[in-house]
From TrEMBL:
<comment type="similarity">
    <text>Belongs to the LysR transcriptional regulatory family.</text>
</comment>
<feature type="domain" description="HTH lysR-type">
    <location>
        <begin position="1"/>
        <end position="58"/>
    </location>
</feature>
<dbReference type="Pfam" id="PF03466">
    <property type="entry name" value="LysR_substrate"/>
</dbReference>
<dbReference type="Pfam" id="PF00126">
    <property type="entry name" value="HTH_1"/>
</dbReference>
<dbReference type="InterPro" id="IPR036388">
    <property type="entry name" value="WH-like_DNA-bd_sf"/>
</dbReference>
<dbReference type="InterPro" id="IPR036390">
    <property type="entry name" value="WH_DNA-bd_sf"/>
</dbReference>
<dbReference type="GO" id="GO:0003700">
    <property type="term" value="F:DNA-binding transcription factor activity"/>
</dbReference>
<dbReference type="InterPro" id="IPR005119">
    <property type="entry name" value="LysR_subst-bd"/>
</dbReference>
<dbReference type="InterPro" id="IPR000847">
    <property type="entry name" value="LysR_HTH_N"/>
</dbReference>
<dbReference type="GO" id="GO:0000976">
    <property type="term" value="F:transcription cis-regulatory region binding"/>
</dbReference>
<protein>
    <recommendedName>
        <fullName>HTH-type transcriptional regulator CzcR</fullName>
    </recommendedName>
</protein>
<keyword id="KW-0804">Transcription</keyword>
<keyword id="KW-0805">Transcription regulation</keyword>
<keyword id="KW-0238">DNA-binding</keyword>
């Protein structure tokens, strides 16, 4: 069982197709097909159901995917351990939600790459609800997230900073004239929301407790939400760090929300069985140090 075949299998499973996997890996489609066929012959079962251009994992494929991640992770650990010789190198894969990728991680990664240029960093977006499985399967070495209650006891977490969440509206919105805004004041308003989880859950919980009905539009981009709020379509509930600049520029206004003390905690997480290389430990130390700085700017 060749490692390159396992890597191809993982990329096909994650990308959902042979063509996209070939583009990511730099292989022709025939090479991708041969890698998968070799694995299937060795295992004795099909790994994918072919539905036109799309492929879906079979039950055997789902089972094999978990082992493929573990085998590659062990291989990487052995390679990094044998090559370390006092140098910091290797690959670190990080998953994070959009707000942390844009507003928290860049300064960390800039400093880390300057200090350890031989380390390869792979940063990918992730939904909060998927992080547990992604850490468990080995897709990510670390994750930064803001929804700790969904992770299990097999995940190690480091609390970094409490993120202030604000209710925002365009400056001329009628609600900006109120002294205090309760969930009842949101009746009939259009809410522009991020993906399920984290701070969205906080707002929906408050509204549900008061039996309020609101229309909403679901976005996958905080930047899109901000632009849409500024255009006057609705209001939103976002981490202060993501709207600080627009508030200072007068493009957005913070509404006097009754639950203004609500917050979410940004956490660094990894699986408890994860073998931490010296390089990974250095990254943990750097993220925690930056976390101390963040506490003064939320």
């Amino acid at each position: 069982m060749e490692l390159r075949h396992l890597k191809t299998f993982i990329i096909v499973a994650e990308s959902g197709g042979f063509t996209r996997a070939g583009e990511q890996l730099g292989y022709t489609q025939s090479t991708i097909t041969n890698h998968i066929r070799s694995l299937e012959e060795e295992i004795g079962n099909p790994l994918f159901d072919r539905l036109g251009k799309k492929v879906i994992l079979t039950d055997v494929g789902e089972h094999m995917l978990s082992y493929a991640h573990k085998i590659l992770e062990l291989s990487n650990e052995a390679l990094e351990s044998s090559q370390m010789n006092g140098k910091f190198s290797g690959t670190i894969r990080i998953g994070a939600n959009e707000s942390l990728m844009i507003y928290r991680l860049p300064a960390v990664l800039y400093e880390f790459k300057r200090k350890y240029p031989q380390v390869h960093i792979i940063l990918q977006p992730s939904e909060s609800q998927e992080l547990h499985n992604e850490l468990k399967s080995g897709k990510f070495d670390f994750a930064l997230f803001t929804h700790p209650e969904q992770l299990g006891t097999d995940i190690v977490t480091h609390s970094l900073v409490q993120e202030k969440i604000v209710l925002i509206a365009p400056p001329k919105h009628p609600l900006t004239k109120k002294v205090n805004i309760s969930p009842a004041d949101l009746e009939g308003e259009m809410l522009l929301l991020t993906e399920p989880g984290s701070y969205r859950d906080l707002l929906e919980r408050r509204i549900k407790e008061d039996g309020i009905n609101c229309s909403h539009i679901h976005f996958w981009s905080i930047e899109a939400i901000k632009q849409t709020v500024m255009c006057g379509l609705g209001i939103s509930y976002l981490p202060f760090i993501t709207v600080k600049e627009e508030i200072e520029q007068g493009k957005l206004s913070v509404l006097p929300w009754t639950y203004s003390e609500d917050f979410v905690t940004t956490e660094l997480a990894y699986h408890k069985s994860k073998w931490l290389t010296p390089t990974m430990k250095k990254l943990i130390e750097m993220i925690e140090r930056h976390g101390e700085k963040w506490k003064g700017f939320t």
